[in-house]
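Complex 260.
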Amino acid sequence: MLTVGGLGKTYGRVAVLHDVGLEVGPGEAVGLIGVSGAGKTTLARCVVGQESPTRGEVRWDGALVRRSLWRSRGERAWRRHIQMVFQDPRAALDPRWTVARSLMEPMRNLRPDLARGDEALADLLGQVGLDAGHLRRYPHELSTGQCQRVCVARALAPEPRLLVLDEPLSALDLPVQAQIVGLLKGLARRRGLSYLFISHDIAAVGELCRRVLVLEAGRVVEEGRARDVLTRPAHPYTRALVTDTPVLRATPRPPAGPGR
Ligand SMILES: Nc1ncnc2c1ncn2[C@@H]1O[C@H](COP(=O)(O)OP(=O)(O)OP(=O)(O)O)[C@@H](O)[C@H]1O
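Predicted structure with adenosine-5'-triphosphate bound:
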């Protein structure tokens, strides 16, 4: 599915990513952790083809993922199959568009073959725990947690196989973060989705991901099973990252509800 090899990215003279390798298989959730400025967002943008690497490559089912190929018709498979969810759900939604229109746009662009009637849109919203009444609402009429659910529904609209989630919890209150993690776990189970999950929340990474990569100043310094890396980190940088963080939650999270 997703293969990243020898990836390097330089802005001007500043090298932000160095020889990064990464694979995400079908149904696999891979976590990416690192301090602010480590290069996580740059890597995510290369993975979805919004940014072109300076070295190395990103491939989806063998096909090259590149910004310059964004508009090329023959390369549409990865555009459809890799979708991104951003940190700030309010900024990610067009304030002038209803929820229905936000959901329809990616379908129109990437999956003109799919039905886009109210029933199909209501079904999409149902998958993220929102009822059809939300279709005619605007982002300002929704809570931040509901906006993030809409962003997840929008990412699901073209029926992708991989979601790249860049700090999807940071703008949310703690209980709403728990609901979104519950939602993502449920979606992975039901749809066999894969995730590249970028988060400062080590506990959420431990809960959602089987494998984790640790990025320090653009280099992968540690990689392995989340349970091992997060509970018995080998690298001092990882140890510093996970110190004082309750790694695997001791208490079960509440079930995903309709959100606030
Ligand atoms: N378009 C750009 N031009 C120049 N430098 C950039 C650009 N985008 C990112 N950078 C730099 O690349 C480095 C990595 O940024 P990036 O956003 O990938 O880090 P991050 O790990 O996602 O950080 P955060 O957790 O704060 O989002 C930073 O030093 C940043 O200033």
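The radius of gyration is 18 Å.
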